[in-house]
Amino acid sequence: MTLTVAILGAGIGAQHLAAYRALPDRFRVKTICDLDATRAAPLLSAQTVHTTDLDATVTDPGIDLIDVCLPPHLHFDTTAAALKAGKHVICEKPLVPSLAETDKLQTLSQQTNRQIFPVFQYRYGPAATQFKALQAAGLTGKAHVATLETHWNRDAAYYATPWRGTWAGENGGAILTHAIHIHDWLTYALGPVAQVTALLATGVNRIDVEDCAALTLKMANGALVTSSVTLGAATDTTRIRLVFEGLTATSGTDPYAPANAAWTFTARAPTTQAQIENVLAKTPSPPDGYIGFFQAISDHLRGTPAQIVTLADARHALELITAIYASARGGQPVDLPLPNSHPMYQGWGPPDHPIFGD
Length: 358
Ligand SMILES: NC(=O)c1ccc[n+]([C@@H]2O[C@H](COP(=O)([O-])OP(=O)(O)OC[C@H]3O[C@@H](n4cnc5c(N)ncnc54)[C@H](O)[C@@H]3O)[C@@H](O)[C@H]2O)c1
Description:
Blueprint: E1 3-8, H1 13-21, E2 27-33, H2 37-40, E3 49-51, H3 54-58, E4 65-68, H4 75-84, E5 88-91, H5 99-112, E6 116-118, H6 126-136, E7 143-153, H7 167-170, H8 174-177, H9 180-190, E8 193-201, E9 212-219, E10 224-230, E11 232-244, E12 247-250, E13 264-267, H10 273-281, H11 289-301, H12 311-330, E14 334-335
Helix pairs in contact: 4-5, 5-12, 9-12
The structure holds nicotinamide-adenine-dinucleotide.
Nicotinamide-adenine-dinucleotide (NAD) binds next to loops.
């Protein structure tokens, strides 16, 4: 089954297109929808045409899968319209700016029997497969601590795009747009977060939202985690270090594909390095990033078991973001899961910038 795709948004959508084109037996991109024809132009081919008509694209009967690569404030309405038109949806992070909207999409997905695949492409790549294989082999044991670094460089040129850096357009700052990936990776590796304490600051750029953060997290499995986030680093570096009873896992520093960079897995007695090497030697090297992500979706829709990102995964990421903003504003640790009666269930925007329902 080849899925016919429309990509909405030609920014990061260009990278999505490259990944679909690397999987030609699984996907055919029929349409690039973008208000900006000059941005779409380099992406077109005999197979792939341009339109500016979002409504017509979302309801096109010739499309199976709508891929939402639009600015965040357009994600909810577009995803809802696509589900109602009978399409499966891939939606870039952050899926939506509230738990309430996530739950509405969940209901709509059930009612329409169409699926939403939230984007977390950092989960895909050889190192993620190795890590999961070591976990499955029982070699990691109890998780003690982890450290996370999202140390990236974003300047005024990056924030010249009007929707960025604003509550209304971006719906949040570095916690939402940048560190969402590493925190998803954390929960992919260790399971859900049980408590967070957060300090946030806007220190690098003249923007409305945060661009630095220091977080401490307690995981439901008892592990303790620190996460450091800034957009004022000299270079772009993502780093993950997970300390388990049986081994210590240390990522490379590739900022946007941490599961593609070489990781080290160092045994701690009584686990031996030979046991680790034995598992790694048998572990395949799947494609990373968007190719791995799209391949898993294609397998899943063909009925082949695959490691997909679920709506529940996106909900937990957004629940953590809600809790981070609640902790930073309240100056207190916040426990998860959050009840639907939580004052920020409808959105985490500050009181003068409510994102949802304003
Ligand atoms: N997963 C990742 O690693 C990753 C990386 C970058 C961006 N993103 C996410 O992707 C989304 C888009 O980010 P971006 O950097 O590509 O933004 P961008 O502003 O560079 O591109 C968005 C495009 O959408 C078009 N657009 C806006 N409104 C439209 C409308 N109504 N109809 C048709 N086209 C419209 C714009 O013309 C623009 O070309 C954001 O949610 C962002 O957080 C994810």
